[in-house]
Structures
1.
Amino acid sequence: MENKNVTQKYYAAKGIITNQMRKVAEKEELEPEFIVNEIKKGTVVIPANINHKKLDPIGIGFPLKTKINANIGNSATASDVKNELKKLHTAVHYGADTVMDLSTGGNINEIRDAIIKDSPVPVGTVPIYQCAAEVEEIKNLTAEYLIDVIEFQAKQGVDFMTVHCGILKEHIPLTKKRVTGIVSRGGSILAEWMSYYNKQNPLYEEFEKILEISQKYDVTLSLGDGLRPGCLADASDEAQFAELDVLAELTMKAWEKNVQVIIEGPGHIPFNQIEMNIKKQVEKCFGAPFYVLGPVVTDIAPGYDHITSAIGATMAAYCGASFLCYVTPKEHLGLPDEEDVKQGVIAYKIAAHAADIALERKNARKPDDEISEARIKFDWKKQFELSLDPETAQKMHDKLLPDEYFKHSDFCSMCGPKFCAMKISKSVK
Amino acid sequence: MENKNVTQKYYAAKGIITNQMRKVAEKEELEPEFIVNEIKKGTVVIPANINHKKLDPIGIGFPLKTKINANIGNSATASDVKNELKKLHTAVHYGADTVMDLSTGGNINEIRDAIIKDSPVPVGTVPIYQCAAEVEEIKNLTAEYLIDVIEFQAKQGVDFMTVHCGILKEHIPLTKKRVTGIVSRGGSILAEWMSYYNKQNPLYEEFEKILEISQKYDVTLSLGDGLRPGCLADASDEAQFAELDVLAELTMKAWEKNVQVIIEGPGHIPFNQIEMNIKKQVEKCFGAPFYVLGPVVTDIAPGYDHITSAIGATMAAYCGASFLCYVTPKEHLGLPDEEDVKQGVIAYKIAAHAADIALERKNARKPDDEISEARIKFDWKKQFELSLDPETAQKMHDKLLPDEYFKHSDFCSMCGPKFCAMKISKSVK
């Protein structure tokens, strides 16, 4: 029923500029008219659930600056509410534009509630995680239950939700020749369910109901990639692209109901296949914002996947992705703790910012020029201040030269007092 | 005098396949005939000083796998022989293909001697650092003294040397509008000298003498980029490319004497300018191996420049660079210690390997496929073993699940026992 619709896309379709659009326009240094038009086209979303009271809205889409997401949340083996709030604060402090609460352990509703109440940034979830956590076995899941949980979370104020509506029964045989099979948790749960009942994906079958809920609370749908590759060997395969075709179809259906949509993408992709992957996705899905997990560009560096994936993420954002889901050093090894969250966010701020500069987005290079000015002036305090992580920068500088005197000196321990190139260079007539 | 020539390029020109060429061919899984031909063309070098007795030779060039260099060495404020040897061992342990000893503090000759004696990988230096360290003021430098130090180091067994022969007096005014001026130490020293005396660069004037020394010991010349940009704002400017023209001229001169040459490049470059930079350099310098420092793709992340630069380095290697000089987390802040060396080397192993995969070099993806197989088998020990940094991978895994039991379990703390996608995926019929 169109009269229940409260989505930003609905308002955009009517030509109404909302407060959220104004705030986004201001943050992006763009005109509100531009924002409303892009939302209407579907190339920009503002994930802003009407029940997320503390939200300071942001926009996601290729016409805007690149955004990054930090996953937090517990698993059955670790974490609690207090710890998750700490991770939230750390993520936001270092510059995450959104967080996703991926809790699968205890106190799921309580943790989510606390996060939404506390978070100034959009909060995302993967509702099927809660469903699977609350049943004994995957076969006990039902379509009604999945929809109920989606509605419950929507009502709580979740701004965007990953729903794996695109993985179909017909796709499962395509994964049999893969090295690492299905590595999306949502995808694997649905695959098991479909195999057990020999029935179609309930989230695909009930997509209309999901759209109704989205209209009612303005939940932005993040169409999940249940068949994303889990290793380089499986990248860009038939299964991955078969699902993408369905995501394109669902994008159109969602847009018909003025529901905001982003599209999820892989995962593990060799560096030379990133451009092709991104362009294919953006083109197939009519320019809907593309949300990538990394991608990691090699499988051999567990413990350093914030780096392997920041490399892929920079390339992805440069080629057209607009939303980067961070990967922490703990990926493939364990649940990230607060320090991993920090490392992941900083690596992704670097990736997003490097892409914004490369795309020559408005004023993107300004902070770089400011820190470079501070460098040539040997204004160390300013350099630290302008850094993505001032404490770490200062700590590293101070390790060998802790004295206050060296905060004004025209050299650091790298070159020593006699050999600073910039110092010599300044003296050259 | 041609009869004194002992360079790999000299032998290649004569069609002689040396032991070094055979070893390189074996390591690269290529034919010796291919290697000798590429060396003859100048597209591959084997830095192998006849006095570096312990050397296990490697080849550098775009037809081969991407190589990485780790800078070690002290500055006036920190370090000694023992510490530098520790850094050498750490660098080689984690996979550095070469090391450069950039010492500028005390005991320079002693440290270099110890490093050469101990190092199985090619050792590089920047002789002008020693010259500048040993004089009171830059104006006290003389051409004779510069050449003497180059010869002394060549005799010691240095395999490759950075010589800033390409920065000319005429280039200095071009740096005046730069934000950070000249950030190459060698470049700034020579610029000061040229300004003081109003004379041409002595390393340019005496290039013939440098070639004679190179012929005698087989020193590979790394033609330094004294005018590399030190921030994004200065990237791809007139000064940078003016020097490049001179490097091209010197490459041809060196090749006429059968001296091996690599070309150095920047530095700080926006991601979108990397391809242009690499292609220009490779083309101008007739395919001579291109040795890049990073490049970093944003200036705002001191403390994380191993990441900002690994992003640039991957792109650079993908576009045609064949030799990547690492950047450590301490870059712009201080002298790297052993842990920084490790972090730098691992970030660059990732970059080089990701590029080799992307370029579809022979068997490049093999280790990735092996670790992916271990992942789907939940063979945790094998996963750690196949990682770039096994200890770190295991430490992260064990943080939440330390018990031996979990080394054989089909889940980790990321998903917990109920939610491992790969585990569920394996059960899907």
Note: Chain B touches chain A through 110 residues (CB under 8 Å).
2.
Amino acid sequence: MRTVGADQKRALASLLLRVDRKTSAPLHAQIDQALRARILAGAVKPGTRLPSSRTLAAELGVARTTVLLALDALQAEGYLVAAPRSGVRVAPELPEQGFAPAPVGTARAPSAPPRLSRAARALVGLGTGAPRLGAAPRPFRPGLPALDLFPIALWSRLVARAQSRASARLLEGGDPTGHPGLRQAISEHVVAARGARCTPEQVFVTAGTQQAFEEVLRLVVDPGDPVWLEDPGYLGARRAVLGAGARAVPVPVDDEGLDVEAGVRRAPRARLVILAPSHQYPLGVTLSLGRRMALLRWAEAERAMILEDDYDSEFRHRGRPLTALQGLDDAGRVLYVGTFSKTMFPGLRLGYVVVPPALVDVFGAARASLPAPASALEQAALATFMDEGHFARHLRRMRGVYRERAEALLDTLRSRCGGVLEPSPCDTGMQLCAMLPRGVSDLVVRDRAARAGIEVAPLSDYRLTRGGRGGLVFGFGAIRPAAIRTGVESLARALHSA
Amino acid sequence: MRTVGADQKRALASLLLRVDRKTSAPLHAQIDQALRARILAGAVKPGTRLPSSRTLAAELGVARTTVLLALDALQAEGYLVAAPRSGVRVAPELPEQGFAPAPVGTARAPSAPPRLSRAARALVGLGTGAPRLGAAPRPFRPGLPALDLFPIALWSRLVARAQSRASARLLEGGDPTGHPGLRQAISEHVVAARGARCTPEQVFVTAGTQQAFEEVLRLVVDPGDPVWLEDPGYLGARRAVLGAGARAVPVPVDDEGLDVEAGVRRAPRARLVILAPSHQYPLGVTLSLGRRMALLRWAEAERAMILEDDYDSEFRHRGRPLTALQGLDDAGRVLYVGTFSKTMFPGLRLGYVVVPPALVDVFGAARASLPAPASALEQAALATFMDEGHFARHLRRMRGVYRERAEALLDTLRSRCGGVLEPSPCDTGMQLCAMLPRGVSDLVVRDRAARAGIEVAPLSDYRLTRGGRGGLVFGFGAIRPAAIRTGVESLARALHSA
């Protein structure tokens, strides 16, 4: 065995510091990187002979193969040279000639941390949302549809069919505005089911709601501009506004939905309003017709835009269908955002924006020369799913399922938690909000429920401003009626035992 | 047949204006919307009796079913009421009581057009990129990999397998940072193939490169901040910078890559640099080691960040592998962006950012409570594709294919266009740039080539500033050697006949 000189030992000692068995980076890559960094920094001089791979392996406490992998890579890149009988040395000249970094001392001063944008600081300040009770959804985690009732076998066949037709076009990804057949199907759907005014040209496919929000903010709002947000409201909307560097203006929500007059008082020149007029999240109220017309008139007068987040209105359980706000808009002020996360399943990252005719060219130009907006395969499969009527059929079926679940939840909440919780009516979608008595903290109740294995979201999590009455948000889409009843029983025991 | 009063005829006349057979909106939806709008505007008064559906159909020149569909919808929503023997009337009270919009005149003043953000105006100003010769790619449209050599049958099996395992978890979409197995596989890939320093926690899956750019800009750059861009450079980077409201600072590129000293002179306090150090787009040069170290030192001193766009470096045809800039970064300044558009296929919208350890929490917090970043199905299938070694095998095979195509293109360009085109060396990827003689407009040459059925991109399309020598960018990834030779022959004839 070749002896290791003192100089080499020192070089090695500084290398060893970097080998870390706790990270998942392979050991050979760690050795490769550490040695390369030391050579570039001048800590290991050109021409230095390295110990044998066997010695290195022993010093580092790793297998010899690990060392050989690292040395081979460095040799291939020109940092090390091997000569017969004289072993491996650091290359006399570094791979790129004419570049000799100044040697650095043994201890490297730590770098200053990266600077963050104001948007990043605001987003980090939001925290990470409600804690979850493990990965499996418990009653009543909001946001999950009845995945066990999704026609997965049929969907799989359509995916396989789209895949087997995998033309060059499918692999290429297609149009930056979205799959033409899907845009057509979406346009027909929003006209028929939501009373929207829409041609396929107005439909821009996105990889989900969040991307749609970001795109709208980018194109119609400048940094620092005020944007009305419902308070309480959907957290993703707030994230998108903060991420765009715009100013979030909280506007209260009452029984008639967003308080338009309050919005006008707080930010009369807002550039954008984000709201869910058909089924406010999380309170579940509907924007009254008076407020709808007032909002549209204000937007037209101020040249403001309205982002209508119509996330689950397909699931109207009862009563006459509510037309989308977009369908009442004569002035081209409404950008209508829809998603397939609830109507299909959340793992399908597909959504869309319907833009007013005057903005079709702008949205098109902003996407020009970019790749397709979402998975080509899933866009094609969804176009077929809609074309063949499976989508409309699935919606019809789920309306009945969610009505049954909503009734089970409302009935049990009234009979078991009547003195404590005051649930709002629920005629749409898959979640509802129940108010707590004034003065009772929903965070405390949430924690108590969690200890009983029940996952509910505190209303205060959705508030942009402090104060206001506490409440609990229940998701019931993924929970069967029997489990709904058992869950409410557990919750009631937890509430009453306190 | 019921007679139609003069009053009703007037109401109808104003409705008829809106029925438009050229749009794809169904006629019944148009009638529904037009009538609803007129009722809300007070143009058709509460209590007005409508003509029979038969009369309406005749007046409008549509089928009676079409009219019935529209009337049924309005009746369901409470805008119309039907009584036995007295026909259909506008509801005496509108669906929402207490709201009576002021009647408007017959001619509605056109609304002011929507306001656009500065970012939108800048993006629209970019134009829509080079015209394309139809949908099918011709030689030599840049950016397309050899899709006919992609192992589509194998991939389809893995997609089907992931789909058949479609657990609740897959349908739910999973972690907002990405599929855990895919993050692990990406981390192993960038360490082994690109010499990056990376643990799975540092990997954030995205729906492609553009989303990765947008996310990085959102979190490390404030609106108005200067960002260095390579000039000429990748157009998508410029779109992302403009979309974020940041200031694009063009930095020239020479034989050693981005001119770091010029960048420091132009914007010494830039917050971000976006570049492709391993294979500059579209010139194809490599950032020299000296420039790499100078860039990293400057970034560390100025607390600037570097976005390394490593879009095709897996396809290094020959020579020793080049380590990613990220692998040399001791100070945590590099955000490494990779994509599967080239290594797999563009229709798969999957990419990733590897963030420095100090930014893992920030990127995580910014995504907290959001849905999964991309298709759950394709993430799962790709994780398996990588785990089982198919990805590495496909890369190895494609390296040989692209080497052969690069050689065919270079050989033919030299022998057939030697006097006119001066191709740069090509040891990586699937496109190359050939310079034109000084004074020759690449736009003119592009047009002449297009008339000969050849699609090349003019270098000036990629420039951020006017001037500079003209050149042509050739994509050869999707073109077989025989077609490459034929294509260059056609191009040569077009060039020489002028």
Note: Chain B touches chain A through 132 residues (CB under 8 Å).
